[in-house]
From TrEMBL:
Belongs to the binding-protein-dependent transport system permease family. It comes from Actinocatenispora comari. The keyword Membrane applies. This is ABC transporter permease. SUPFAM superfamilies: MetI-like. The gene is ssuC_1.
Amino acid sequence: MSGEHLSTVDNGAVAMAAEQRSAGVPDLVARRRRRRGAVWAVRLAAVVVWLVGWQLTATYWIDPFYYSKPTAIWSRLVGWFSHGTAFGSIWTQIAVTLEEAVFGFAIGAVAGVVLGIVLGRARFLAEVAAPFIKAANAVPRIVLASLFIIWFGLGMSSKVATAMVLVFFAVFFNAFQGAREVDRNLVDNARILGASRISVLRTIVVPSATSWIFASLHSAFGFALIGAVVGEFTGADKGLGLLINNAQGTFDSAGIYAGMIVVTVLALVAEWLISTAEKRLLRWRPPAASADVQT
């Protein structure tokens, strides 16, 4: 068989394979859409069953004074957003808690990333700091919230500090592990080629640890909200934590659930924003490395 004939056969096989791949793309997209639709359908069905079951149980079997029921919680939410709360507009309470959480998240995330990467690459410093970090992480957060109230007063600073502490440890340990997991061969090759420590850190260590860092950020904003709400529980004149604490003091279970729902919605919106940023910043990752159920 001549070389020209072999070349023609090879080109035909390549073209056929490319044709098959391009034909399979719409099927793959359709399957993913069907799967996503099925996931959302099951989620919606689970929520409906749960709410209906809760409503019926609270109506016929349990005391709604203690456990509330979905219709009462919905009425409380409508009242808050229509007529405000006992402490002013619900939007003011949301804005205060969100501001505290965002500042705490930003400060805690930056501090956690920087210290995590530095200690992850400096073994001696990591061994020196290890017992102190473990001891600080073991302190109950509610104790720190009380201490921050004494230090910084009832204003925003004490809530930001509480949120920052929760976020810091969530991010720090992931950044530390991500810096430790960097491929040693890449670092050695870069140094052989004359790269400085800063260059290695900037071009190899930080990009390699980014996946670890983003994995912690998904839960870190939830921790920031928890920190802000816990701080408001300890002492505040505004915020969602104040609303929930007031509802607890008046045995208003519907108010507690309503406050929880607002906090949950804020956390889900933040999760969506972080996921969107992750997709844009980590496009260089192979698809298999980031394969996940996307919603």
